[in-house]
Each structure stands twice: as structure tokens, then as C-alpha cells.
Amino acid sequence: MLLSPDGILFWEYGWLKLNATIAFTWATMLLLVAGSWLVTSRLSTGETRSRWQNLLEVVVIQIETQVTDVGLDEPRQYLGFLGTLFLFIAICALLTMIPGYQSPTASLSTTVALALSVFVAVPFYGISERGLTSYLRSYARPTPIMLPFNVIGELSRTLALAVRLFGNMMSGAMIIGILLTITPFLFPIVMAALGLLTGMVQAYIFFILATVYIAAATRVRRVETADQSSQ
Q: Among 57, 97, 113, which residue's Cα sits nearest to residue 195?
């Protein structure tokens, strides 16, 4: 039993290898790009709108609401990054219902890449919001003794993001694979639906955690500004 799509090799030439993780990652990204273009190519500002535009507006509004609830005052600033994270993981989970599709999120390399994107985005948004000096100073709060612990915390939560998503997605695929070998066909279909639900939940959790980390990196400036205005 393959525990990861990394083990499925489509093409190899010397040290160049094309496995299922790479192939299905790019296929999912192309699907997202094509779907985004189709949905946004004929947007209307009038009263008559297509079903796809209504669906798009519902998704965007819900993502913005979640971002605002976490603590980011300007959700549109973070919508592109956070929304893409959520949609990529959610679409990967949805496409697992298609026979033959191997979810890239069942590979540790993909989940590490997603976690590293959050790892880079947190200081990027933190520095753009607060400035380089103020952001770096936050690692030494409340005392300089906390500097190494804060750095370790940044690294450990990135690892936790990657391992959590990988573990949950891989375990679902493993359970379905085991049931296919020992039970009739109907029961694994029910488990596949449960795996889809699990994938959607994991997409939401990953999205919320990324939002929380970015909010934590940008909120200090707002607190300092409020303190200065009250004085």
C-alpha cells in the first residue's frame, strides 16, 4: 500500500523525476487558475448575476468574515494568500472523490511547502505592517531571555502545521485503502465521503491557524498606536 503519492512515478530521466505529487499539484493549480478565470471573466455589477458569481461572492465574503473575526482589520490585504491556501487544500480534498486522483496534501513534501509559505508570509506581513525594527523587537518581548524561545516557537509551529495536515490527510487515505481490501465496495464510499469532510475541516483549520499567526505578527503595532493615541 502506498502511503504517499511520492511513491507513484510517472516519468524519470536521470535525476529528474515526475511523481504523482508533482503532477497532481500542478493539475490542481491549473484547475484553480482556469476556474478562477472562468468565474471572474464575466462578472456583473448589475442585479442580474450568474450562479457562479453568486457562489464566488459567498466564498469571498465568508473568507473575509473569518479573517476579520480572527483579528485582521483589512481582510482584503490578506485575502489572496489566505484564500488561496484554503481553496487549494479544499479542492485537493474534493478531488479525492475522483477515481485515480492522488491528493498532493497526502505527501509530506506538499504540506511542508504549504507550512513554509505561512512561515514566510508571517514576517512578510508583520514587517510590512509594523516595520523591520518593531517586528524584530517583538522576539525579545517581554524580556531578551525570551528571544531563543520565540525563535524556536516560530520553527516548531511551522513543523506542526506541516505534520498535522500531512497526518490527517494521509490517515484518511490509508483507512480507505485498507477498507477497500477487506470490506464490500459500499462502505468505503461512505468512508470516502467522511474523508472529504475531514479534508474540508483540515483546510479550514490550516486557514485559521495561518490567519492567527499573521494576526499575531501584525497586532502589536495596532496596540502600540492605540496606547499612543490614548496618551
A: 97
